[in-house]
């Protein structure tokens, strides 16, 4: 390992997949190693998330990041220069301390997460190792099961349908490469079905087909049909994963499904989702009720957690304490891990570890606003998360992550173990 003291940290403004400015950070270490990372951005954010610092005003809809880039160059860089990049926990503690707010709003979650990840990349480069291997060390790791969006919805498709993500998982595939092959066929089949029905209207924010459906359930019917048309048995080979993102259309006790013209209480929403679980090959459900609906989360998990993965995203916001509380309460059985939701690499890892210790499913996840940055692909393997959620099977900010995992799987060769069914926190075939 070359000298890992931080010699230079540089923030710059680049652009994300929605055409919005975002923060990139480049870290250079004394021994010459360089690391670089870009902050992603969510659209359907949870209330407890680290907050991005945006310039406001009218320019670029208020989304500009000159202030966040300024945080990197004027405050974070002077504070980190001379520190040891190899001590990621100390670097991240310093970032949190320097910001001083609970929600990272002073320096900006975008500035902090890009700095934290850039330092991590630089340390891996100093060790001359790919990031996933630097993270894994001697521990065995699995190649993650991909969760891949076929139809976008919710906040990512102007609320055209209420449910946010209609995804597939291929746990019976023998490798990550084969899971992608299967998904590509299903994505094609779904596209053909949409064209035949006169419903082909382009794609949503994460590259899934635009959901030109007359009801939320029609999306489920079409997806189930697409899996069958592509030649796969469901759920024996391929299952459905839903991100309900319920906080986007209601909160504890009152949910309005605009497309279905229905308002439901918590029990009604759980019954409706339960009906879907009975009828369609659903293996995973994310945020089934609102982020403030603790009783609803417990009830949903009590009823369906033995046959279905129940993921907390907005509900857990990549927070280790919330994961521990959810495990104690039986409120979820899986945690979504989004580095920019937590703020730093170390906090993200702590949330994931809390999930692993509780026997949860753990899913490293992208955001709806993404870039060519592939850090999460490495985190998902290096931390042995078992699952990776990136969005759809089109558009290069998504494909960059899938392709990176293909490279890692190839590098592991015969020793690569695909997580498949083992990714799930319930008894599987
Ligand atoms: P977001 O959505 O990145 O827009 O928050 C992703 C998700 O809810 O999983
Ligand atoms: Zn979500």
Entry summary:
By secondary structure, the chain is α/β, with parallel strands linked by helices.
Keywords, separated by commas or semicolons:
429 residues; Enolase-like, domain 1; alpha/beta; binds zinc ion; 16 strands; binds 2-phosphoglycolic acid; 8-stranded mixed beta barrel; TIM Barrel; 3-stranded antiparallel β-sheet
What does the model show?
The chain has helices at 66-80, 88-99, 109-126, 131-136, 176-196, 216-229, 266-279, 294-304, 320-329, 339-342, 345-357, 375-382, 396-412; strands spanning 6-15, 21-29, 34-38, 142-143, 145-152, 165-169, 239-243, 250-251, 254-257, 262-264, 282-286, 309-312, 334-337, 361-365, 386-392, 417-418. The chain is α/β, with parallel strands linked by helices. The strands form four sheets. An eight-stranded mixed barrel has the order 5-6-7-11-12-13-14-15, surrounded by seven helices. It has a three-stranded antiparallel beta sheet with strand order 1-2-3. The mean pLDDT is 97. The chain binds 2-phosphoglycolic acid and zinc ion. 2-phosphoglycolic acid (PGA) binds at residues 42-45, 164, 243, 245, 313, 365, 367-368.
């Amino acid at each position: 390992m070359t000298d890992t003291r931080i010699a230079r940290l540089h923030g710059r403004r680049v652009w994300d997949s929605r055409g919005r400015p975002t923060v990139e950070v480049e870290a250079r270490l004394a021994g010459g190693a360089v690391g670089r990372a870009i902050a992603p951005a969510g659209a359907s954010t949870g209330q407890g998330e680290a907050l991005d610092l945006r310039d406001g005003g009218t320019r670029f809809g208020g989304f500009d990041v000159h202030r966040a880039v300024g945080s990197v160059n004027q405050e974070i860089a002077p504070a980190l220069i001379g520190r040891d990049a190899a001590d990621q926990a100390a670097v991240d503690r310093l970032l949190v301390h320097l910001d001083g707010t609970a929600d990272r709003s002073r320096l900006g979650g975008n500035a902090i997460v890009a700095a934290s990840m850039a330092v991590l990349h630089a340390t891996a480069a100093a060790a001359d190792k790919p990031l996933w291997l630097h993270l894994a060390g001697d521990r065995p790791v699995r190649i993650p099961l991909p969760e891949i969006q076929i139809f976008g919805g919710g906040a990512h498709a102007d609320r055209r349908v209420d449910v946010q993500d209609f995804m597939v998982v291929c746990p019976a595939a023998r490798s990550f490469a084969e899971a992608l092959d299967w998904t590509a066929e299903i994505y094609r089949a779904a596209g053909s079905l949409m064209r035949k029905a006169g419903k082909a209207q382009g794609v949503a924010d994460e590259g899934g087909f635009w959901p030109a459906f007359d009801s939320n359930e029609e999306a489920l019917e079409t997806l189930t049909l697409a899996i069958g048309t592509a030649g796969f048995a469901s759920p024996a080979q391929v299952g459905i994963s839903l991100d309900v993102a319920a906080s986007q259309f209601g909160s504890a006790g009152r949910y309005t499904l605009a497309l279905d013209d229905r308002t439901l209480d918590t029990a009604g929403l759980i019954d409706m989702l339960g009906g879907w679980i009975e009828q369609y090959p659903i293996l995973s459900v994310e945020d089934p009720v609102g982020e403030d609906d603790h009783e609803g989360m417990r009830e949903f998990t009590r009823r369906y957690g033995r046959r279905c993965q129940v993921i907390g995203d907005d509900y857990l916001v990549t927070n280790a304490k919330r994961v521990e509380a959810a495990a104690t309460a039986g409120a979820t059985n899986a945690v979504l891990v989004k580095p920019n939701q937590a703020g730093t690499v170390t906090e993200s890892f702590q949330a994931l570890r809390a999930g692993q210790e509780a026997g949860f499913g753990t899913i490293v996840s992208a955001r709806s606003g993404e870039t060519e940055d592939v850090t999460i692909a490495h985190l998902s393997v290096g931390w042995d998360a078992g699952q990776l959620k990136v969005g759809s099977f089109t558009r290069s900010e998504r494909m960059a992550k899938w392709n990176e995992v293909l490279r890692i799987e190839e590098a592991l060769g015969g020793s690569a173990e695909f997580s498949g069914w083992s990714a799930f926190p319930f008894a599987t075939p």
